[in-house]
């Protein structure tokens, strides 16, 4: 049927991996470097999801980009990225059941293409996926600095759909694409593209999912295969 899924696009942080400790430690190391008070991990975790620059700005108390000393922000961001590059795998783990779930999905639908679209900078994203052996599942991994825009802008997702169509040798539509993520950013990315969405309630920002209204929910990676099967073959 025309609505059968042909492309899965996964968010990274809070969906495939739990990176919260390393991100929080890197933010607090940045604040210490700048002589500013550190923040509770729960506060920093609430800032994750819109890319490194916004994470740092929020930690500096500048969520709207009102700090006019861009050199100061650039120094903070540079320190954060350099620190995180070294420490990105200190405590980061793949969520339990992720690899098994993706293997189950792949076994059930061998031709289903998969990719990663994250707002994390692309090099750490690719390095982390390679470290944990996740990269073998994905034909592409794009980050927040891969394009001129970030999620929830649909440009990255549209690019992946076009690339998947080339690989498949047929046109894959947005309606045949599923975005899987733990926050409203991912759900809105799908909606802005005309794709479907699966919200992960176990991630870093599940409190944002209700308002975004994903097409389906999963309480754990183990629930992905069933949720995806139901979206691939909806009831008549």
Automatic annotation (TrEMBL):
Keywords: Hydrolase. It catalyses: 2-phosphoglycolate + H2O = glycolate + phosphate. Pathway: Organic acid metabolism; glycolate biosynthesis; glycolate from 2-phosphoglycolate: step 1/1. Pfam families: HAD_2 (PF13419). Signal peptide: none annotated. GO terms for cellular component: cytosol. It comes from the Bacteria. GO terms for molecular function: phosphoglycolate phosphatase activity. GO terms for biological process: DNA repair. It is an enzyme of class 3 (hydrolase). InterPro entries: HAD-like_hydrolase_sf, HAD-like_sf, HAD_2, HAD_sf, PGP-like_dom2. Its EC number is 3.1.3.18. Belongs to the HAD-like hydrolase superfamily. CbbY/CbbZ/Gph/YieH family. This is phosphoglycolate phosphatase. It comes from Granulicella arctica. The lineage of its organism: Bacteria, Pseudomonadati, Acidobacteriota, Terriglobia, Terriglobales.
């Amino acid at each position: 049927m025309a609505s059968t899924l042909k492309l899965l696009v996964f968010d990274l942080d809070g969906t495939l991996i739990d990176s919260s400790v390393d991100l929080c430690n890197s933010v607090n190391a940045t604040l210490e470097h700048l002589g500013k008070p550190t923040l509770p991990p729960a506060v920093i975790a609430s800032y994750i999801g819109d890319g490194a620059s916004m994470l740092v700005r929020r930690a500096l108390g500048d969520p709207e980009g009102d700090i006019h000393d861009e050199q100061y922000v650039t120094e903070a961001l540079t320190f954060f990225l350099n620190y995180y590059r070294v420490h990105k795998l200190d405590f980061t783990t793949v969520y339990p059941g992720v690899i098994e779930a993706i293997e189950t999905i792949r076994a059930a639908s061998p031709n289903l293409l998969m990719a990663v679209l994250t707002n994390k900078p692309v090099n750490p994203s690719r390095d982390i996926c390679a470290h944990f052996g996740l990269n073998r599942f994905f034909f592409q991994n794009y980050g927040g600095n891969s394009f001129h825009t970030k999620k929830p802008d649909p440009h990255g997702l549209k690019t992946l759909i076009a690339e998947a169509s080339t690989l498949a040798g047929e046109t894959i539509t947005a309606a045949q694409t599923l975005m899987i993520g733990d926050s409203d950013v991912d759900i809105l990315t799908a909606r802005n593209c005309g794709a479907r969405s699966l919200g992960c309630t176990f991630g870093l920002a599940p409190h944002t999912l209700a308002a975004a209204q994903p097409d389906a929910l999963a309480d754990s990676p183990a629930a992905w295969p069933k949720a995806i099967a139901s979206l691939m073959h909806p009831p008549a």
